[in-house]
Design goal:
By secondary structure, the protein is an alpha+beta fold. The protein is built from five helices and six strands; from the N terminus they run αααββαββββα. It is globular, with a radius of gyration of 18 Å.
Length: 163
Amino acid sequence: MLEVEASPVDVAPRCGKVTTEAIRPFDPVARRGRLTDMTSEQTVDEFIRRVLADDLDGACELASEDIEYDNVPIGKNIGHQAMKDFLGVMATMGEVTFEIHRQVVAGRTVLNERTDRFVLGERTIDLPVAGVFELDDDGKICLWRDYFDYATFERQLAPTVAD
């Protein structure tokens, strides 16, 4: 019989220590740039809403200056401008929606399983995605990481024989 000893994996979050504390309630005096009136989930939901509305400046209001936006099979974009440059391409792709199937919140981390749908003329691309969002001490998104299979996207994007 094979015995395997499990060892702890040290996975440090990008945005500070791991905590299960909820974001503090809204305090207008203490706020000064903090998004403490929103929960982690509300912040992520509003961020996604703004991204899909092509309100990238508005989305950046909910993100730290040094946000790490990582499309795992494509690469990382660090900072507001890099994220806006990358997402700006999405605005040229026609209609884009995110259908969130499941969303789980643990403190300042939000995980979602979703289908990103791109409608390009007569063609619809459905891309299964697992998203990870981490919020910093100010309640801003400091990490957005999407895991997906790029080949699935390319396969649906490629012209068919009928095209």
